[in-house]
Design a protein that fits this description.
This protein is mainly alpha-helical. It contains 7 helices and 2 strands, in the order αααααααββ. It has a single domain, classed as Rhomboid-like fold (Up-down Bundle), CATH 1.20.1540. Helices cover 55% and strands 5% of the residues.
């Protein structure tokens, strides 16, 4: 359980807020879509910070959250030393790009984050050329081989612009960190107690040793 919260602290908070947002919409029959990204609209600029938390339906929400849980698990464990940078860059930059290039509509959903994380995990192995990381990239490519279809312009309500923006942000992140020495998450070791007890203040240090009872 401690491992779960250590790895998923940020994603867990994000998911909870997204679920609460969708719950409020469902309970009170309201829509927060107008808080999404409205391209080239100053009022819609705030959506860059809010649009990943807003979804069109429960199906839309759970589709993104399921993918996000898997991707964040891999990111925060295997690339722990840069995981926060990757996550927050994937959160903000795809939204900014969508605000610039998107259609005149409200863009919502966390797919920009998922596409960015997915692209990073797919390409980092090929750029870094390290065997263990390359294995992760091949696994991601196999599991998400159909991602390309979400980047094709469509007449439906799918924000392909957000997908494209997330993909290229993840690609850029993979190239930027290709020479970085990654460190994975280390499970904290439990404190080991010894028969030695030490106290310290500014003036004196006292140490004593617990003697073992002699056996008879």
């Amino acid at each position: 359980m401690n491992l779960f919260f250590s790895l998923y602290k940020i994603p867990f908070f994000f998911i909870i807020v997204a679920i609460l947002t969708q719950s409020i919409e469902a309970i009170f029959s309201v829509s927060f879509a107008h808080f999404g990204i409205k391209p080239l609209d100053f009022n819609g600029f705030l959506g860059i910070f809010l649009f990943p938390l807003i979804h069109g339906s429960w199906e839309h929400l759970f589709s993104n959250m399921t993918t996000l849980i898997i991707l964040c698990g891999i990111l925060f464990y295997h690339f722990h030393s840069v995981s926060h940078i990757i996550f927050w860059t994937s959160y903000l930059i795809p939204g900014l790009i969508t605000w610039i290039i998107g259609r005149d509509s409200f863009h919502i959903g966390a797919s920009g984050i998922t596409y960015s994380l997915m692209a990073f995990l797919i390409f980092i192995g090929f750029f870094a050329k390290k065997r263990n990381i390359l294995a992760i990239s091949f696994a991601m490519l196999f599991l998400h081989s159909g991602f390309i279809w979400g980047m094709i312009p469509q007449s439906t309500g799918i924000s392909w612009e957000t997908h494209v923006a997330g993909f290229f942000v993840g690609l850029a992140l993979a190239y930027f960190f290709k020479d970085f020495s990654f460190s994975s998450y280390q499970i904290p070791k439990k404190n080991l107690y010894s028969p030695h007890s030490t106290t310290f203040d500014d003036e004196t240090s006292f140490t004593y040793t617990v003697k073992k009872k002699s056996q008879t």
